[in-house]
From TrEMBL:
Residues 1-17 form the signal peptide. It comes from the Eukaryota. This is Lipase-3 domain-containing protein. InterPro entries: AB_hydrolase_fold, Fungal_lipase-type, Sec_MonoDiacylglyc_Lipase. Gene3D superfamilies: alpha/beta hydrolase.
């Protein structure tokens, strides 16, 4: 239901305002330049596959997620118990919480929005950087941390009920691991959700965040905060969010750095269409990965995928997709 028509995919770049795209991919002086290292398919399977599968489910209808009968996306995930959902498939994006018995984890997955929508939110001048809600993140008070206004407003609409659901899910299942995931706008929400959960849970609980097609969500202070806040799974010796950028997807390059936005570290970049070649990009906004993309080659189709294991986002693989 959220999939884009081919026509809108093709006409999208032209419909976007040029200033943002003219500079969004350019690299500023503070971009990392370290050489990316190969990230194997085995690493993809053991670290990124399950979060991607859950982020794919989040695009299916709320009823089919609740009953866990959403077709291929649900069938790929066994031994899942649905616990809670919130939001809707309109202005307040859907999220769900589930217990993954095989992985001994609680999963929080955020639905995204179609590429046209996320790019127009990002491109909307009324959504600049605003102060991070220091009442929710008390340890950040006075630290000059700013985030995308539209993302924070959207996050706040479901934050309290989501957090209550996670706390009760941890208590009822006894697991010690929370996996937060999402694609596109859902990835941006996942970073805020993961940081919130990390603040609320016992330090012994492992919280990871994995995002796909993640736009920049805040300033340098926010990027640094995320880098210290959420632990990444092995095998990367890195603390923070992990996010996967697919080839020439324009979304990870916006909003642009010249407006004060900065990515946290932890980027895994997909190099080609083979679903076999991945690299880990050291530092923040590494110029050798999505940040260095040539704007003229922007591909909105890359935002949807496939990323690996034939996973695409946007709902086209759900049983009730139109
Ligand atoms: C990764 O998983 C896919 C399917 O899930 C499988 O076909 C492939 O052999 C796996 N590759 C490695 C290296 O584990
Ligand atoms: C997962 O489900 C399979 C069959 O449905 C079962 O054999 C297995 O024990 C389950 N694993 C867990 C951890 O519940
Ligand atoms: C900030 O976070 C608190 C919870 O700590 C919440 O009650 C409040 O609504 C949030 N403020 C805004 C403006 O969203
Ligand atoms: C806040 O951080 C921004 C970078 O994100 C920087 O440009 C600005 O000077 C900082 N302001 C203060 C008061 O430190």
């Amino acid at each position: 239901m959220l999939s884009l028509s081919l026509i809108s995919l093709l006409s999208l770049p032209a419909a976007l305002s040029l200033p943002l795209f003219g500079l969004g991919g350019s690299t500023a002086d503070d971009s990392a330049t370290g050489a990316p290292t190969p990230f194997s398919l085995a690493d993809v399977n053991s670290t990124l596959l399950r979060p991607a599968q859950f982020a794919r489910v989040a695009y299916c209808s709320s009823a089919s997620i609740t009953a866990w009968n959403c077709g291929t996306p649900c069938e790929a995930l066994k031994n899942i118990t649905f616990l809670q959902s919130g939001g809707d498939q309109g202005l307040v994006p859907l999220y769900f919480i589930a217990h993954d018995a095989d992985d001994q984890s609680l999963v929080v997955a955020h639905e995204g929005t179609d590429a046209k929508n996320v790019l127009s939110i990002l491109n909307d001048a009324q959504f600049g950087l605003v102060a991070l809600n220091a009442s929710r993140f008390p340890e950040t008070a006075g630290k000059n941390i700013t985030v995308h206004d539209g993302f924070q407003k959207t996050f706040e609409r479901t934050a309290d009920s989501l957090l209550a659901g996670v706390m009760s899910g941890l208590a009822s299942t006894g697991v010690k691991k929370v996996v937060v995931t999402g694609h596109s706008l859902g990835a941006a929400l996942a970073t805020m959700t993961g940081a919130m959960i990390k603040d609320a849970v016992d330090p012994s609980v492992d919280v990871t965040v994995t995002g796909f097609g993640l736009p920049r969500g805040g300033n340098q202070g926010w990027a640094d905060f995320l880098d210290g806040q959420v632990r990444l799974f092995s095998p990367l010796a890195h603390v923070g969010v992990t996010f996967v950028s697919n080839q020439n997807d324009p979304v990870p390059t916006v909003p642009p750095k010249f407006l004060g936005f900065q990515h946290s570290s932890g980027e895994i970049h997909i190099v080609d269409d083979s679903q076999q070649n991945f690299v880990a990009c050291p530092g923040q906004d590494n110029a050798n990965c999505a940040t260095g993309n040539n704007v003229l080659k922007s591909s909105v189709a890359n935002h949807l995928g496939p990323y690996f294991d034939d996973i695409t986002f946007g709902g086209s693989q759900c049983s009730d997709s139109s």
